[in-house]
Amino acid sequence: MLLTTIVLTLLMLASPVLGHHSVAAFYDRNRTTEIEGTVTEIFWRNPHTGFSIEVVNAEGVVEEWVTEGSPTSELVRRGFNRDTVKVGDRVRYSGLASRRGERMIFGGAPSHLLLPSGEEVQLREMSFEERISQISINREFSASFVDETEPGSAVDATGTGIFKLWSFQDRYQLRSPLVLTPAAQAAIDVYDARTDDPSLQCIPPGMPNAILNPYPIELIDEGDRIVQRIEEWGQQRVIHMSEEARGQIQAPSHLGYSVGRWEGDTLVVDITRLNFPFLDQDGTPMSEDVSMLERYTMSEDESRLHYEIVITDPENLVEPAIWNHTWFYQPGNTILPGIADGERYECRLRNTESVYQ
User: Fold this and answer.
1) Are strands 104-106 and 62-68 parallel, antiparallel or unpaired?
2) Whole-angstrom Cα distance, residue 123 to residue 207?
3) CA-based max dimension of the chain
4) What is the pLDDT of residues 112-164, one digit of tens each?
5) In this predicted model, which residue has the larger pLDDT, 151 or 303?
6) DSSP per residue over 261-310, as a string?
7) DSSP 3-state assignment of 144?
8) CB under 8 Å to 34, separation ≥6 — which residues?
């Protein structure tokens, strides 16, 4: 069934998630719809996979639609790979809408793809809370793919400690609205996500965006340092744990210079020496004088990792910004490579100018 109103969906992002680019700038999270047509191109690259789909509209006119989707690693984790859909296949795609009427779809929740075989694939990894909600609001569309078992358990996790792989559990939340300085507000007023977002130039996110995303992380103990592997964008961050590290001067970088310590069982990390321009997807500026304080605290049964980051930037924030996040332990999960046939994160943007017309 071809609906007369088409909604474009984002596979991986929904408010208030930061991420590859600002969802609100491109898509309407409040509308969902579906298209049906023939696949003419498959784009299997990061930061967004996707298809070109030839659709015959209600007037009998052939239109080209473009879908955007999750990074390759998330789709592979859900059993979807570059061979799942082939050029020439007739598919049905459900998702959110373009704000400007472009013929595009970016798969967020809910987002599904109906294959020629009749199998429906849920395209986006969702938190436990979202999956339960999905059962009630969308039973007719891919309910069979919903896992009703809450992930993580004391039996799975106890004894393995903080040094393991942590999977996405809950959306991270801003504790209270940002209180901006006049200079920061002026910068936001002229920010255009469609041209100014670094990710649209294949520039990986800095802190805090690097860690605040719906993908796994892994903490590895290397004695006087902790290595943090981040699946999205294939990034790796070092947390220095020695006292000597505190006095060292490092060149600024997009992930900053991280020095950690233990407060009981909580890993506390101070981050300085950051030079990434934006705090969030809305274009909130971030100065080089910004500092960040992270806290990683496991649940008592070691099945969940609770996260807090406090960001202080007097040039742009009247008061500190605080985000909270949660990961869960899922036995057998791994950090996946950025592309299906290699161990690197390869970013390449698509030319989608034709669908804007």
Assistant:
1) parallel
2) 27
3) 71
4) 777 888 887 776 655 434 433 333 333 333 333 333 334 444 445 545 799 99
5) 303
6) EEETTEEEEEEE-B--SBSSTT--B--TT-EEEEEEEE-TTSSEEEEEEE
7) helix
8) 1, 3, 6, 7, 92, 93, 94, 95
Specify which residues 321 forms β-bridges with. Answer: 311
**Helix H or strand E segment including 75:** helix 72-77
Instruction: In whole angstroms, give the CA distance from residue 77 to residue 357.
Output: 35
Average pLDDT of the segment spanning 91-105: 79
| Of 211, 238, 236, nearest in space to 224 by CA | 238
pLDDT at residue 12 is higher than 80: no
How many Å apart are CA 85 and CA 10, to the nearest integer? 18
Task: State the burial class of residue 137 (Cβ atoms within 10 Å of its Cβ: 0-12, 13-18, 19+).
Answer: exposed
Six token digits for residue 178: 């940002």
Confidence of residue 224 (pLDDT cuts 50, 70, 90): very high
Token reading at 94: 């459900």
Q: What is the pTM of this model?
A: 0.76
- In the block, tokens 């390759």 appear at 72
Contact between residue 215 and residue 330 where contact means Cβ atoms under 8 Å apart:
no
The encoded tokens of residue 283 equal 């274009």
Which residues touch 278 (CB under 8 Å, ≥6 apart)? Answer: 198, 206, 209, 284, 285, 286
Q: Please give the Cα distance from 328 to 144 (Å, whole number).
A: 23
More confident residue, 342 or 308: 308
